Amino acid sequence: MKKGVMRPGHVQIRVLDMGEAVKHYTDLLGLIETDRDDQGRVYLKAWSEVDKFSVVLREADEPGCDFMGFKVVDEAALNQLEKDLVDYGVEVEQVPAEELKDCGRRVRFTVPSGHAFELYADKKYTGKWGVSSVNPEAWPRGLQGMKAVRFDHVLFYGPELAAVYDIFVNVLGFYLAEQVLDPEGTRVAQFLTVSMKEHDVAFIHHEEKGKFHHASFFLDTWEAVLRSADLISMTDTSIDIGPTRHGLTHGQTIYFFDPSGNRNEVFCGGDYHYPDHKPITWKAEDLGKAIFYHDRVLNERFLTVLT
Predict the structure, then answer these.
(1) Same domain, 17 and 109
(2) Is 273 a catalytic residue?
């Protein structure tokens, strides 16, 4: 079933004030700024990532997410996936190489939930930040804030989850790892993976199209999540909820907001997924426990604050 998509590659986030945003994502989250372009966009990466960037910030009049990109294994896979999308009836757009600095050509498409995604095969390989590729030390010195290890996934809110599922599973080769079903058996949340991770992208049903819930970054330990909670308070950063545990995926988590109102997550742990695993199902009537395993009740902000 594998079609050549390897992993999440990047996300472009809209911010209201670039100076405040860069400070948040570098000083607090601990990402490293790697470049800027003539459009004023800022490129960032987490220290363990081998490509030049995984987060792009674009100053705009309203916050949110422009697109999420997935890296594929090579140009042949990109060509085949592009053909498969077109054959499936998905309209694709060609984004030329270097539109994002040091990134190859991208194939962009919008799914029925209103979210834009893109596939690409090439991006400048810069290696892990601050550690050698020969006899590397355990971690780099000089990391800031939460010391984010990698960009991990994005959660989107929008309608037509079944149609979105069909594209990601039947065309792109993702697997359904976890789901939430309502009493009628309709899937109202889906967690999709193309790796051993519990999810690389996720969708929750919402009537309005194209809404961005959060971008998530991986940390190594529960202690690192607790330290992140301290940093959120030390910097008077707006917090959503946590530290706590999810029922879905079982990750240990904390949510907070960047200065523009975009939600971030840092987390550790979580389940794993192999292709022979059957999806884990949660019941919608138990959604409180599914999302916040300890409180077992929904935080209203989690469902309603979107960008």
Answers:
(1) yes
(2) no
Taken as a whole, the chain contains a residue count of 307
Based on the fold, state whether residues 175 and 288 are members of the same structural domain: yes
Is 49 a known active-site residue?
Answer: no
Rounded (10°) CA dihedral 54, 60, 64, 65? -40
Question: Cα(3)–Cα(265) distance, rounded to whole angstroms?
Answer: 29
* 75 secondary structure, DSSP code: H
The answer to whether the pTM exceeds 0.90 is yes
Verify that 210 and 266 share a domain, yes or no.
Answer: yes
Of 120, 140, 174, the residue that ends a domain is 120
Structure tokens at 99: 């539109």
Structure tokens at 44: 């960032």
Of residues 43, 120, 175, 255, which has the active-site annotation?
Answer: 255
Catalytic residue among 153, 205, 213, 273: 153
* 110 shares a domain with 208: no
Name the domain count of the chain. Answer: 2
Q: What domain range includes position 113?
A: 5-120
Which pLDDT belongs to residue 286? 66
Report pLDDT digits (tens) over 237-283.
999 887 877 767 787 899 999 999 999 999 988 888 888 999 888 88
